[in-house]
Amino acid sequence: MARTVRVAALQMGTTNIWDERPHTLERMLRLLQLAAEEKVQVALFPEIAFTTFFPRYYITDEARLAAFFEHGDVATAPDTRAVFDRARDLGIDICVGFAEAAPEGDRFNSCVYYHAASGQVLAKYRKIHLPGDVEPFPDPDAVNQLEKRYFKPGDLGFEAFRVPDLLREGDDATAAGHAGDQACDSQASGTPNGAVQGNVTGDPIFGMMICNDRRWSEPWRVLGLQGVEIVLCGYNTAGFAPHLWGASKDADPEEANRLSLFQHKLCMQAHGYTNATFSVSAARCGLDDGKYIMIAGSCITDPEGRIIAESKTMGDEVIVADCDLDMCRPGRTRTFDFGRHRRVEHYGRIVQQTGVVEPPLLTPGTGSVTKLKPATVAATAAAEATLLANDAPTEPVEAAVVPSTTPAPPTNPIQILLLNPTKDPTLTTALVSAAIPTLPADVSLTGLTVPTAPPAIFSRADALLAAAASLSAALDSTAAHDALVVASPLPGGNVAAADLLVAALREQCPGKPVVSALAAGVAAARALGGERVGLLVEDVGAKAALEDALLGACGGSSPFHCGGGIGVFGGAMPCGHAGAAAIAGVESCGLDELRVGAGGGGGGVEVEAEREHSLADDHDGPKRLSTPEADAVADKVLDRICAAARVLVADGPKKGPRADALVLGFCAPVPAAKVRAEVAARVLRCGDGGRKLPVVDPVVAGVQQVIGLVRMAGRMAGATAAGGEEAAAAAAAVGEATAGLVV
Ligand code: CDT
Question: Is 47 a catalytic residue?
Answer without folding.
Answer: yes
